[in-house]
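ok so heres the complex, two chains, lmk if somethin looks off
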Amino acid sequence: MIRDFAFQGAQMLLVLVLSPLLTGFVRKAKAYLLRRQGPPLLQPYRDLVRLMRKEVVLAENASWLFRVIPYIVFAGTWVAASLVPTFRGGLLFSWSADLIALIALLGSARFFLALAGLDVGTSFGGIGSSREMMIASLAEPAMLMIVFTLALIAGSTQLSIMAAYMVSGEVGLRVSLGLALLALIMVAIAENARIPIDNPATHLELTMVHEAMVLEYSGRHLALIDLSSELKLLLYLSVIACLFVPWGIAPPDASPQAIAVCFAAYLGKLVIGGVLLAVFETSIAKMRVFRVPAFLGAALMLGLLATLLLFVSGSL
Amino acid sequence: MAIYALYGVAALLVLTPIAVVLAASPRASNIIYGACLVVTMLLGVIGLVCLFGRTVSNATLPLGLPWLGAHFRIDALSAFFVIIVNLGSAAASLFALGYGRHEETPQRVLPFYPAYLAAMNLVVLADDAFSFLVSWEFMSLSSWALVVSHYRERENLRAGYVYLLMASFGTLALLLAFGLLAGAHGNYAFDAIRASHPSAALAALVLILTLVGAGSKAGIVPLHAWLPLAHPAAPSHVSALMSGVMTKVAVYGFVRIAFDLLGEPAWWWSMPVLTVGGITAVMGVLYALMQHDLKRLLAYHTVENIGIIYIGLGLALAFKAYGMPAASALALTAGLFHVFNHSIFKSLLFFGAGAVLNSTGERDMEHLGGLIHRMPQTAFVFLVGCVAISALPPLNGFVSEWMTFQAILLSPQLPSWGLKFLVPAVGALLALSAALAAACFVKAFGVSFLGRPRTPAAANARETDNNSLAAMFFLSALCLVAGILPGIFIDALAPVTNALVGVSMPHQTGLDWLTIVPIAESRSSYNGLLVFVFVTLSGSISAFAIHRLASDKLRRGPAWDCGYPDLSAVTQYTASSFAQPIRRVYGTAVFHAREIGEMPPPGSTRPARLTVELRDLIWDAAYEPIATFIGYAADRLNVLQFLTIRRYLTLVFSVLVLLLLVLAIWQ
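and the predicted structre for the whole thing:
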């Protein structure tokens, strides 16, 4: 029990510590692909610390909600991220929220962030919120269809049990899994505001979605929101890793050596995921905002198709 | 217990003449609403006692049909709906203690209000078709009187007209359904109907008629047309009752007939129910997204939730037909739990809209904004309602939708091919509607309560009175409790599902950490309490740590807005502009939405205009032709009003001859 508790705590800290590093790594990889030197790997940590120490400049008519939202968004994302199995299965509290609840928890975070965009009453905030909700209105159902597909295969919506099932030999190669993976990658790109949906590094306001929404935030509030986005990227990579590359997740009773190996494997998965993301992002151009529905609609259809296949035949 | 419930109903009915007498006095609204509050609370307690005591009791009154009498009965299902009706009514009465004081014409509201509450109670208590239909019609008429209480506004009169037509249509369908159920011998008592087993074709016809009849009251697409007109037209506490409670009474009618009176379902019954549910859910929320009238948005959103409830009920029918009682119990519990949840948060949201209407005189969101500064407590409870209705954890709306999803995940075991294709599609529609609901309520809350005030009315709004706030805080506390301790509510529904599908979901409250586990722990589990505790703890710990260790300094300054802040509040995002991306994505297909931009020529100082055209295709396709046809027929038949006496006599005589001929040939 105490051991499990310690591991759950360790996981909470681990995702918190690793997530800025992952973002830094992706940025570095992108810079390398562009033949630039890029910021140092630890730059996101420095940014966070610097922002935390700065005073908050709050718009005159910002309400109490505006000040509370960064904490809500951060807490929701953090809790969601710490319930995803990373390198060791059997998290103490993983049963308290299954994959559907995790998605909904991220949905809560987004709901509040979109409200924050509207709170100050500026046009950029509004444009960000309204586009974010439009993207979410397609990304969330697509994600749920992916969850349906995986849950129908594994017979469970619990992440740890799904991961255990995926690693067992019963799964095999399935059409529906392939469709789900493709759809999940598309959704992950959209949810994390990456190119081609949104540009995390842009400074041209009209092309931003996520950044426009949080434009009025500064200081510690901005630090928390940045940290939540970094956590979300880590979360999605962990979910993909846990469901589609489930090898190297130690069982709860594994020896310390095995756990160390699995931890290294997890880091390896993150590195590979980060490199793939960087390569993808550098090789594609950002799309117009009204092309996004077609992109995400395709993800939704893929998810629906995968679910339909499973309803028609359990072995597809 | 049934007789005590009837005493309560009688007390409410007695209040009606009292209200007529008192209406002129300034204290009338306090007396009537106070009395309604007490009586409905007592009725609610009776419901609770019956549900948890698992008792069934009957009462017969020597009213109604002379050879039948009026039968009333509280079983588990009735008790559950008695609780819903009276919980909503008590909250509405408490709210009205404050809100009703601002009523300009109390004599048009007060007498009908207790009658309306009594009628809703009677519908769920009735145990024979005659009492059921009379109560049903009584409920329609008393609510109609409340809808047209502000009769000087043209829109309200039109709403009342459409409502009356649709209500009669719905009752007609139910009348036919009960006529078929009663059979050749006219057994109107529910016991007799239960004992008789209708043939498959007859049962199918009854099911369709019930779906239409109860559905038109509940607001399923395409029979929803009256709902967004009538619900907002009534005073806000009545809107809350109509949207939060009366639609649930309609769901009760459907559940009572489809699950109880009709006996064993056929496999295909679930198909129309599921199809209607899925379409209703998505269409309802899309309609809601296009609105900028706060109360109308809420009314349209009721349509969405009715869809979600019907999806749960449809799945329960399918599982029941294929002999999967455990899954059926899960789906039915999900549907009924959503009935409860929706009645709470929809009432809460309508109260919030009423409070806003009271203090600003505005229902149009384009004229609101920034109310969170002027009405902080209303804003808080409205936000709770918005989070709950958007199905976000850790509040209650999420739990019932989560359970519906779990039920969908059990459905590949259904052997029918039709359902194999239909259920995933319905699942996708459900997921889509959940995501759109979040967008809809970001818009509703964000545009009305956040940002800067768009009109002086909004800028000078005042916080609403304490009674209204008490009602809203009570309901939002219930949203939280039902969200973090859903096990209690699921267990409370066990006798209902036991009675309707034979089994109930596994007992929940004894599980570790108060988790809910619908089927097995290896399959799925959710713990709202832990999620809530985790989020609260990690949020407050991080806030504490950052304030202590990093910085707690704060400075107010002008908004940044990329360096171009515009001082005019008109430049903010409005309800229409917020919905614009979603309108572009979904609206062109569903509403034939067209945007016409009109730019002045260079040099002209005329403002540019953007006109958005939306068409309600359902109205155009289904209602408009019927209305046109009736108008046409009426015009033609109008000639008959202006005949001479000779022609009338000829007409009467020829009809007589014709009828005699028919009779002669017949025999």
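quick notes: The mean pLDDT of chain B is 93. thats all i got rn
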